[in-house]
Specification:
five-stranded antiparallel β-sheet, 5 helices, globular, 417 residues
Length: 417
């Protein structure tokens, strides 16, 4: 039997796949809750920071062990494949450091430890380049606990964003279309159809983002994106919400309360909205804010409460998998978010352990093929107020990594034809 020059040829075949696979965020175990990953905003959202700004990661460990946790930072290309940069090329200082700032909960039924990490810090002094980053948190044994994406940009271009109705009559009542104009005043964009890529994110949800968009044409120093279907999103509907900053009394959206081992809050039963006319209902586009009444530090004084969701069943989603959806768990769909039918009360029910605060949520349907239908229960309306962020990536000819050279933001509150 002839021998190959390479003793393990199958490894060589697999290597490109292993090296260039897209990274995905790792979801935490059940005892890790309320992962707040934010910049200089009061509510949690996808952190998109200007080069030199700080980012804050907070989370709670409900096991009461006061475990040690460590963090690592990695740099990625626009498509979330690993970049070729070494640590020293994108970071001043060191990662793989222990998260030193933590406090135990105070005066709460649920015992937990609250951890907080700010970057830059004394060990990780500076992130030197723009682009995509992944922050990973490990336990004392080196096992990955969870990871979160964030982005850093350089302010080198102006990105104009406007939201329009769909040009397609078939979708004119339910779709929203994003138009983009990128103006480069102090940077020369060489061969933009090859070197420029745009990403559009609706309501800070990377799961539904539209990526790899190339400019349609150039006009002077402007790049123009006026697509129809390529930049269209379903409008969805405004998020439902509740607030339980006082667990001892019924607040906004809460019908009754009950104290067992922990407090239980029972929300008003919701109904299907897809067949109803659109009604404007101000929301914070799926996000949440931790808040508590009569306390100085919500980080350690806010308690954990079992939130009971309920939904009236409907023929539109009969025998479908229905889930609660929102940024409270980074838009993750799993068994903990699934509603089950309760025959005695004739409603779909679920209970989720959440920290006190103001929360947005909606109900979505997961199809048998695993695809998500956000509008099956809430509906899709072009009038819905949504937030859109546009991120512009640039890799010059011969460059080794993808810069982010500008971001733009727009709202559909003043949508036009």
């Amino acid at each position: 039997m002839p021998l190959s020059k390479h003793p393990y040829p199958f490894i060589l075949l697999l290597l490109p796949t292993l090296l260039f696979c897209q990274v995905k965020e790792t979801n935490p175990p059940s005892f890790i809750k309320t992962i707040n990953f934010k910049g200089n905003t009061p509510e949690t959202q996808l952190p998109i920071l200007k080069l030199g700004e700080y980012v804050v990661l907070e989370f709670d460990a409900l096991n009461g062990n006061e475990d040690d946790y460590y963090y690592k930072i990695d740099h990625y290309n626009y498509d979330w494949t690993p970049s070729v940069l070494m640590k020293s090329e994108f970071m001043d200082g060191f990662d793989n450091q222990r998260i030193r700032n933590y406090e135990n909960s105070f005066n709460t039924y649920q015992i937990y430890s609250h951890y907080q990490l700010t970057i830059p810090n004394e060990q990780t002094r500076r992130l030197k380049v723009s682009g995509n980053y992944l922050l990973s948190v490990f336990n004392n044994n080196g096992d990955l606990v969870f990871s979160r994406k964030f982005m850093i940009y350089e302010d080198q271009t102006a990105v104009g964003v406007s939201i329009k109705r769909s040009r397609d009559v078939q979708f004119i009542e339910e779709n929203q279309r994003v138009e983009i104009i990128v103006t480069s005043n102090n940077i020369q964009l060489n061969n933009p159809t090859q070197t420029i890529k745009a990403l559009i994110v609706q309501n800070n949800n990377l799961n539904t983002a539209i990526s790899n968009l190339k400019p349609q044409y150039t006009l002077g120093n402007q790049l123009i994106y006026r697509y129809d279907t390529e930049t269209s999103f379903l409008g969805g509907n405004e998020y439902l919400f509740f607030e339980n900053k006082d667990v001892r009394a019924a607040n906004t959206g809460i019908r009754t309360i009950d104290l067992q081992d922990l407090y239980h809050n029972y929300l008003f039963t919701n109904i299907e909205r897809a067949s109803k006319p659109y009604t404007y209902n101000p929301d914070i586009n799926g996000k949440y804010v931790i808040t508590v009444l009569d306390a100085e530090n919500p980080n350690i004084e806010a308690d954990y409460v079992w939130i009971h969701f309920s939904l009236v069943p409907n023929e539109r989603f009969k025998n479908k998998n229905v889930h609660v959806y929102g940024n409270f768990n980074n838009y993750v769909i799993d068994e903990s978010t699934r509603l089950l039918y309760d025959q005695r009360s004739n409603v779909l029910k679920n209970a989720i352990l959440l920290k006190q605060g103001f929360y947005n949520y909606k109900y979505v349907v997961v199809n048998k093929d695993g695809s998500l239908n956000e509008g099956a229960i809430s509906g899709n309306f072009y009038q819905t107020e949504n937030n859109y962020k546009v991120i512009i990536y640039y890799r010059d000819l011969g460059a080794r990594y993808d810069k982010i050279i500008g971001i733009g933001e727009g709202s559909s509150v003043n949508i036009s034809n």
